[in-house]
Amino acid sequence: MIYKSIRFSNGGKKVPTKHVSAVLYFIPDSKLLKNNIRKIIKNDGLILTDCELDLFQDEKEKELFTAVKSGIYNYVILSKFEKHKLTLDSFRNYLSGIIKKLNDKKVTRLELHQPEFSDVKSVFQTEAALVETILEGLLLGNYSFDKYKSEKKQKYDLRVLFHTKIKITSLSEKVESLIDSVAFARDLVNEPANVLTPLELIKRTKKAFQNEVVSVSAIDQKGLVKNKMGGILAVGGASSNPPYLLILKYKPKARVKRKIALVGKGVTYDSGGLSIKPTNGMLEMKADMAGAATVIGTVLSAARHKLPVEITGIIPAVENMISGSSYKPGDIVKSYSGKSIEVKDTDAEGRIVLADALHYASRLKPDLIIDFATLTGAVAVALGLFTAGLMTKNDELAKEILSASEEVDEPLWRLPFNDDFKPLIESDIADISNLGPRWGGAITAGKFLEYFVDDKIPYAHIDLAGPALEHKYRNYTEKFHTGFGVRLMSCYLKKLSS
Fold first, then answer.
1. Is 277 a catalytic residue?
2. Residue limits of CATH 3.40.630.10 in the chain
């Protein structure tokens, strides 16, 4: 973390402090006149020069962060926003960026004035929703992954005094619980593969859930052989770190409204196998278990919020490596379902291990199945780095998931998923091929997965190969892998159980 901890409370009487302090105001474009700004900051006894205000009013400037000589604060921050350009992510993204600047200035006390709700109500339905995004921004921006650096910056505690009508304590506790779940998912994805082996993934998951109403178990290599889970065994067969099927079961004490299965791709490292990747293609492959991290983070959040939804998380945890026991292009793999797979590319391994996991999920007869996987580069080519691909034939399920996506601003785009794509993965010598033609690669990969799901169960596939990995489109995603999907699914599950 950037700050050792962040504590939230409602703002009260302003008093001088020995700590380095700052005050933050949000200024809408309708109140940019100097006299208006001076009225806004007058109560804190702050004085800004004409030169500073002229600079802030420049069209290119979005923020004034300056030291002040008068008043009880060391720094004053003015953040400008244009009403017609506001999105649900505007304040979340801004606050996640400001946290780094505060830390650089060694600020340990921040007085934060909420934007006037009348200035933002075109975007936010409630004042609580506005405050929630601000809290999320500070907590998401506070994430870092520096455990392997030998020299670390000194870490401070930050106290945030929030000037709002909302009672901040109960709301901040809920938000902190959610973002802690996101951070745990991010920690898993950011760990190097020499540390986070399939077995280590299981150990850390068990530790995370030791105080939750969630059982954690795993089918080991002997169990995989006994159950004839040929997909997982084929992909994991070349590694000195054996494969597992990790199973999480959350059964709330409250009356259960829905039973769902969440399946996550848990390839803790992907070399490509014998269809080996180039070095540049391998650098991010510690993150090929981001789908698994999304499932684990989602179950953790659901348990902590005591949601009345029964969830089974199913994660095939493997390494796709190279040795004399590697599976090979041209092999026929017998999956857990009994269906055979022609291997045309050993670097299309995620769908092979998910085939076994999805059949396992189907046998549980849940109300619906959703899987998450960094499955294809094709989805990032199609949608870019900050949008995941949603594939389902169930319109109601798509509508519900997309609604949650819009609410938390973790973008999804629904891709075509009709049966015209099925012939593209037919095999002359097996039931199905693990690779289709170049065109529509994300969709044919999804159709492969669908082949192993009971067609009576509503099913959705989310390919998060773009947004799960670090990218520069958000302040809170620019350096570290992102934990994409945990906020999305937590929102979806709350809606599902309401």
1. yes
2. 178-497
